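Quick illustration, no need to memorize.
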Amino acid sequence: MKIIFLIFLLFSAVYGFNQSFQFNGHIASNGRAVSFAKVILSDRFSVLSNEEGDFSFENIPLGEYELNVKAVGYKDFQQKVNLNKNITDLQIELEDNELQLNTVVVTGTMRETSIANSPVKIEVLSQSFFKGSPVYSVIEAMQTVNGVQEQVNCGVCGTNDIHINGMEGPYTLVLIDGMPIVSGLSSVYGFNGIPTSLIDRVEIVKGPSSTLYGTEAVGGVVNIITKSPEESALFEVDANYNTHQELTTDFSITPQLSKRVFTTFSGDYYFNNRKLDHNQDGFTDIPLNNRISLFNKWQFKTKDNKDLLNLAARYYFEDRFGGVLHWTKEDRASDSVYGESILTKRVELIGSFIIPTVKRNFKLDFSANYHEQDSYYGDVSYKAQQQVYFSNFVWSQKLAKRHYMIAGLSNRYQIYQDNTPSNTDENTYVPGVFIQDEFDVTDRLKLLGGVRLDYHFNHGLIFSPRFSLKQQFGSTTALRFNYGTGFRQVHLFTEDHAFVSGARDVVILEELKPERSHNATLNFNHSYAFKGYGNFDLDLFYTYFQNKIIPDFDQNPNLIVYQNLSGYGISRGISASINHAFSIPLRVRMGVTLMEVFEMTKDSNNLSVKEQQFFAPKFSGTFGVNFNWKKIGLEFAYQGRVMGPQRLPDFAEPFDRPDQSPWYTIQNVQVTKSFKNINLELYTGIKNIFNYTQPSPLIDPMNPYGDNFDTSYAFGPLQVRRFFLGIRWNIKRK
């Protein structure tokens, strides 16, 4: 009997040891499949999830295991599983981490993909980024983005633009919901008028994207994605006030009209009427401003809850002034009391219609905008109007499992007219066609190729190719390479208003040809888990310009001379950034950019001469520290920027100034107290903690109607330290 019992035990042990199961599961996050996640069983067995988020283990022995799931852009997942029970379909839901690598983006490839999977590197500024410090426009917020620089072009009226990797503002294309809205005339002041209240996120692509978006997308693309009415709170308000008497108020109302129709109405009001003159040059340090922006967006769904039509409209009005302190509105157009008074009116319409076919692979995007500027720079009148109509008819289709094709027809029609004697009026129509193929060669290697063909009436056919490569190494490391060409038709008097602001005369020596460029970028990205988790980015960039058009301030101190560069221009450099979230609720980000931007020209002896570009620092750095004490609802945000020396314009004696700017830093701090039970936030802080401002940006301010008056010597902040206090409140939709 004992022998039979021992044989039975031995048979049971052998049978139990040999018994195994096939173990299946699915990984998702917020309704989206998580591809290429690493699934580990007690450090003994591991697999990767496929593109649909599915995974499978085969021949796993019975027993209890520790299940671990790791994926770039998500928090690690842990769970005990007992394979004594037959588990055939385990559903795993991953949580986002703070690195945003799983955020869905559209700008780089014109289709939805996550940051981690995109073959084009994309940086995203979320709503939490804009809440870290109160800003009065998108352009101000970008001061703490690595490799992006706000450049003030006029020390009186405060016009500014964005420099990406050292390339001037006109090289950056600004989109709203994928449509080119801010360009030409509107680029002078229009960028300042985009309030943060209507923003869901901002996507930034550094490098050319002319294949998809046409001209102006030479240095990079800034795509402002507006909030979705379906996902917005019923009511939101955000207001703040500072010790310089600047007031801003944002609000939005989002009722749900039906199960398939949503709308949101939002507004932004900014008011600044205090004349400050801390640099004691007799002029306002920053322009006075009375600005309002109203925005309405509609979202229509199909019966099966898919997007059908998005339609948005915005109205914008601004009354801006900069000038001598005793100027009043009665002095507008005065030839004795100097002031720069700019009135701007603007209307925008943006839409996207998905044609309801079976495959939903046809889409029509369209936009229209009207921009009117009525200005006086001293006694010089500048009145201009611009109308831009744009459409993209896009077809997209996944082919042969590994190819994703996008093709489209675009149309751009622009009308521009002004009252200057330079005969800059134009009426242009530019049709274009583009095609792009995103090819998954393997699960880890992606190739993207595309071409675009535009027809310009004055310049003929313009060919713009593009190539991208992304190689994934494991689940945490990726290498990206991008190459593209750029083409930019210059609208001189809409991009540089120096001919009306300041006493220098503008001289154009020849008929200006379009600028062309070749750009290559190499990006290395690595995510890691150490004392929390984080990711590291390293970028190399190089741009070669032909026919570059640059303002020559050195040839004659009383002139600005424009002509196509006879040589070539180069923008090259390296940038690195790290973003780390500790195990405690502390997050740190740091970034550094080293670059050189210069032109190679010929001197009188036909020898090559290297000239550094103005306002292009060889070093810049950004940083941010966030600590969120959730238990008591307190968040601390500290952010800043460090700027290295920049080459500055030269001026003749007795108005000569240093030709290099000093090192300086701008740092801000904010503390936010949250009351979760009533959806209320109170915040306060300091901007420009160390109170750094540059000396007066004006040349000969005592004689603004004279031949030497100039407003272009602006390299740093002009506004001193200020304290602010604000409130945010929202009502969630049930």
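The chain has a mean pLDDT of 84.
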